[in-house]
Specification:
Helix content of chain A: 55-70%
Number of strands of chain B: 3
Distance between the termini of chain A: 48 Å
Strand order of the largest sheet of chain B: 1-3-2
Structural class of chain A: mainly alpha
Oligomer: heterodimer
Structural class of chain B: alpha+beta
Number of helices of chain B: 5
Order of helices and strands of chain A: HEEHHHE
Shape of chain B: globular
Radius of gyration of chain A: 20 Å
Chain lengths: 128, 140
């Protein structure tokens, strides 16, 4: 597969490759989300809120980083890898998040004192 | 021929709903991510966590699993338990506030998931959690 047809037509404005700039911005924002997720892991109050930070902010961070890399190497050959990687990320991350959240609740990981209500009420039904 | 025509218009409608769903969820994902990121980087805590019982109109395993996964994928909300019969999710929210407004935010998501997973579209009638009257449900 030759990507020349897609890749060679670099859009130049004032000697700057526009696509590379957009790619750089996208990757930076993506990395920023991952940093924020890491900070959230330390700052947030309990295991459940921390799970939120990691499974989500990190997911968007990974997706933005992947899209940025695609913009640096555009072409069908990278496009299908991009779509596959994003699809796997979107499928696996919530399943893992749910498994950990569920395990945390079942092993009685404490909810922060700020918690307003808990409909589960610390019962762990058999049929989950 | 009539049946074929109905199948075609149904397919086009479904495609429209699929595109609408993709746009809706993409926007939800982005805005909720921004909310969580803002909560993390600004000092202090605006957290108002809670775990709410959320009875569903989803029926099949695929519908329930999709709902649970998309809730978990949305920043700020996390499915911590799933009950099959009757289909119910227990959802942890970092910014849940009170149970009523927290449950409200999943109405549109469930409608749009069923729009896509059912060929005939979303069911008539209100979300399951409204039917029983959330006030009577007795939140612990």
């Amino acid at each position: 597969m030759h990507d020349a047809a897609l890749a060679s037509e670099a859009v130049m404005v004032g000697g700057i490759d526009v696509l590379a700039v957009i790619a750089g911005i996208t990757i930076t924002i993506g990395a920023g989300f991952i940093v924020v997720a890491g900070v959230g892991l330390l700052r947030l109050a309990d295991v459940y809120s921390r799970m939120n930070a990691v499974t989500k902010a990190a997911t968007l961070g990974v997706i933005l980083t992947l899209v940025g890399s695609f913009l640096l190497m555009p072409g069908w050959d990278t496009a299908w890898k991009l779509v596959l990687a994003i699809a796997l990320q979107l499928l696996s991350s919530p399943v893992g998040g749910y498994a950990i959240g569920r395990a945390a609740y079942r092993s009685k990981a404490p909810l922060t004192d700020e918690t307003n209500f808990d409909d589960l009420g610390h019962r762990v039904p058999e049929r989950f | 021929m009539n049946g074929f025509l109905r199948l075609m218009t149904g397919s086009v409608r479904w495609l429209g709903r699929f595109v609408a769903f993709a746009g809706f969820f993409g926007w939800e994902l982005a805005s909720a991510n921004a909310t969580v990121a803002w909560e993390i980087i600004t000092p202090g805590s605006a957290l108002a966590p809670g775990i709410a019982e959320l009875p569903l109109r989803c029926r099949t395993d695929l519908e329930i699993a999709t709902m649970a996964n998309l809730i978990t994928l949305t920043p700020g909300t996390l499915t911590v338990a799933i009950q099959r019969d009757p289909p119910t999710l227990y959802v942890h929210g970092s910014h849940a506030g009170d149970p009523h407004t927290f449950r409200e935010q999943f109405d549109e998501l469930e409608n749009r998931i069923l729009d896509v997973l059912r060929f005939e579209g979303r069911p008539h009638g209100p979300p399951a959690w409204r039917a029983g009257g959330p006030e009577e449900r007795g939140t612990r």
